[in-house]
Specification:
Elements lengths: L1 E6 L6 H11 L3 E7 L6 H9 L8 H15 L8 H10 L2 E4 L2 H21 L5 H18 E5 L2 E4 L8 E5 H12 L4 H12 L5 E3 L6 E6 L4 E2 L2 H5 L8 E7 L5 E2 L13 H7 L2 E4 L4 H9 L4 H7 L3 E5 L13 H8 L8 E6 L4 H4 L8 E5 L11 H12 L8 E4 L12 H18 L3 E4 L4 H6 L1 H11 L6 E5 L4 E6 L2 E7 L9 H15 L9 E4 L3 E4 L5 H15 L5 E6 L3 E6 L4 H12 L6 E5 L16 E4 L3 H16 L1
Parallel strand pairs: 1-2, 1-12, 2-7, 12-13, 13-14, 14-15, 16-17, 16-25, 17-18, 25-26
Antiparallel strand pairs: 3-6, 4-5, 8-9, 8-10, 10-11, 18-19, 19-20, 21-22, 22-24, 23-24
């Protein structure tokens, strides 16, 4: 699964998250990193309620609610009533003049939302727990404790005006305070209530306040004022963070983090890192300035992209795209980051100066004059670049199991396996073959799935060529019929050696703790001796290698660990390279015209192809293939 890490503010990455979800669904892993130094409007009020000891919840809330909307189809007419009611509750904003009115309003809203869920048939223990948690957090926001004479009102809410107040900011703030002033732990609790992945992470969980300094030396001490600065004649030149004692602090990545996931690990594991558009001085640069981040990003193997804003935000008014990058480059190294530009953006943001040193990707990513990117166009241009070296081959040779089709029967794997077959027919028929270590019987059992995919794609071609049993047996799949065509390289067959090998291996493995029978051994059309299911396959392979050397001193056969439970034994002189050479010769293709895609490119039966000069795309799983296939088809449609 492709791991994508987004550096975001509050709403700046909505287009990215929406585009990724619309195009690739849950076939990608998406994590979002934010800072939480907001102290404007109801966010600032929430921080003051808890004596300035918690971070601002608004950006965490916005990103988690974005995820909630995407996962449950809010606004698309497909959402269930309980999810719709929960979203309406969390998205509520209200205005009240006193804490008494605010408390009564919030508790009534909570109860009404869950009462309506019950009326609509969504009564459950889980919803009772959520109601109780939100009521408890509301009490914690307004009251310090319960006593025999009642509850003690927090002094910080007395005289407070609740104007344009986010009800869920109240929940998040109370959860942070109740969890030792940790907004990160509050995020975990809210993700549980919303039933979404806990994939929005704080760059640090240390409570600090954001200030800015302008070119003239003016200090802006409110984050809300930074967002709305809008003085091109006196632009913001720097930001800094202060603790509760007004000491300047530069926090380090993951400082104060008490959650299970670290930003350091997310950066190290990411395949793609996206620096979102958004308000730079108020949201993004406060994240970039953390100690250690620059070095972590430089070590990362991920492909990196920075999405340029469509318009000049108020906090950088008067500074175009080139100037913005000059500012960002103070904090992160942009030499290996591609800048994504929208040619339909505001003129100063649509291009860089002629002497700019940065790599760029440019496309029409919105309607002319729009302040927002088109989600699908934005994500598509990034993935076209991510897979760029693999999209223009003339022929594609595919592995099958755990590349296109999963060996797991769990729901998401089976669903994407079927989707992958449909994409195979939709995008690659006529310039592709399958070269698989799987048996012919494996494909025979899947003939109905192939037939459904073929019919869905509306393909009327000659069929799909499949070279199975390690590529030695050529079949054609058409309209659900699996027809044998020929053997390749019959000189490398097992012949009578199959019986000698299987008897000796069965004897030795059982003496060493395996409980096998001859039913665990399969002769794949005299090409491969396949043994499965096997546990402790590394140890089993060591024993099998010793047996092969004893029986055939010249090293005639070789054992391969394949799939999830299998060891295959075949002639040591034969591997998938032989099948590729035969097909390449028959099609009269130069090696440069062929792309091979498989999951065992580092070890296993695909690794031999890396040494041939063939261009190889190694995928980790079927989800990677799905992302590649979608991107390939989108590229062809342009």
């Amino acid at each position: 699964m492709i791991k994508i890490l987004i550096f975001s503010g509050g709403t700046g990455s909505i287009a990215l998250q929406t585009g990724l979800h619309d195009l690739y669904g849950d076939a990608v892993r998406m994590d979002i990193v934010i800072s939480a130094y907001d102290n404007g409007k109801s966010t600032g009020a929430c921080r003051r309620v808890f004596d300035g000891k918690i971070l601002g919840p608004s950006d965490l809330r916005k990103n988690q609610l974005t995820w909630f909307k995407l996962l449950y189809g809010i606004g698309k007419g497909t959402v269930t009533k309980d999810k719709s009611l929960l979203y309406e509750l969390f998205d509520e904003r209200f205005s009240k003049g006193s804490w008494q009115e605010a408390y009564a309003y919030v508790t009534k809203k909570i109860d009404r939302a869950f009462d309506r869920m019950t009326e609509c048939g969504f009564a459950s223990t889980a919803n009772d727990r959520k109601r109780a948690t939100l009521r408890r957090l509301t009490d914690h926001f307004f009251f310090t404790s319960r006593t025999e004479t009642g509850r003690e009102v927090r002094e910080t809410v007395r005289g407070m005006s609740f104007q344009d107040f986010s009800i869920s900011n109240l929940f998040y703030a109370a959860a942070a305070a109740a969890n030792g002033n940790s907004l990160g732990l509050a995020g975990e609790q809210m993700a549980d209530i919303l039933e979404i992945p806990d994939n929005v992470h704080l760059i640090s969980d240390r409570n600090l306040y954001l200030h800015a300094k302008t070119l003239s030396g003016t200090i802006i001490s409110d984050e809300g004022c930074i967002v709305a600065w809008n003085h091109p004649e006196d632009p913001i030149s720097d930001v800094f963070l202060l603790d509760e004692r007004q000491n300047k602090i530069i926090p380090f990545v993951d400082e104060g983090n008490r959650t299970d996931t670290s930003c350091k690990d997310l950066i190290a594991e990411a395949d793609i890192i996206l620096f979102s558009s958004g308000t730079q001085w108020s949201s993004l640069i406060p994240t970039y300035m953390h100690t250690g981040l620059k070095e972590m990003l430089e070590k990362s193997r991920a492909k990196k992209y920075l999405i340029m804003n469509n318009i000049q935000d108020c906090d950088m008014k008067g500074i175009g795209a080139t100037g913005l990058l000059g500012t960002v480059s103070r904090y992160i190294n942009l030499s290996n980051v591609k800048i994504v530009l929208n040619s339909n953006a505001e003129e100063t943001m649509s291009r860089l100066s002629s002497d700019s040193p940065y790599q760029t990707l440019t496309g029409k990513l919105s309607e002319k004059g729009s302040s927002k990117h088109c989600p699908q166009k934005l994500v598509n241009i990034i993935f076209q670049d991510f897979f760029s070296e693999y999209l223009r081959a003339k022929w594609y040779f595919f592995d099958f199991d755990d590349t296109i089709w999963s060996s797991s029967n769990e729901k998401p794997y089976r669903r994407y396996s079927k989707l992958n077959l449909k994409l195979l027919y939709k995008g690659f028929i006529g310039n592709s073959i399958i070269i698989s270590g799987n048996s012919a019987n494996h494909f025979h059992l899947l003939r109905k799935e192939f037939q459904e995919a073929e019919q869905t794609a509306g393909v009327t071609a000659k069929g799909l060529d499949i070279y199975c049993n390690g590529g030695k047996c050529h079949y054609v799949m058409r309209d659900g019929i699996f027809v044998f065509k020929r053997h390749l390289c019959s000189d490398y067959n097992l012949d009578e050696d199959y019986y000698l090998l299987s008897e000796k291996i069965l004897e030795v493995l059982n003496k060493n703790g395996w409980n096998l029978s001859i039913k665990n051994f399969e002769n794949r059309e005299n090409c491969i001796l396949s043994i499965k299911p096997l546990t402790d396959r590394k140890r089993a392979k060591q024993l099998i290698d010793e047996i092969i050397l004893q029986l055939f001193k010249e090293g005639k056969y070789m054992a391969h660990i394949n799939g999830n439970t299998t060891i295959d034994i075949m002639n040591a002189q034969y591997d998938k390279r032989m099948a590729v050479k035969v097909v390449q010769k028959e099609l009269r293709l130069p090696i440069t015209d062929i792309m091979y895609i498989g999951d065992k490119t580092e070890q296993g039966n695909d690794s031999c192809l890396v040494k041939t000069g063939l261009k190889v795309l190694g995928v980790k799983d079927i989800f990677d293939f799905y992302c590649f296939a979608i991107t390939y088809i989108n590229n062809r449609m342009q």
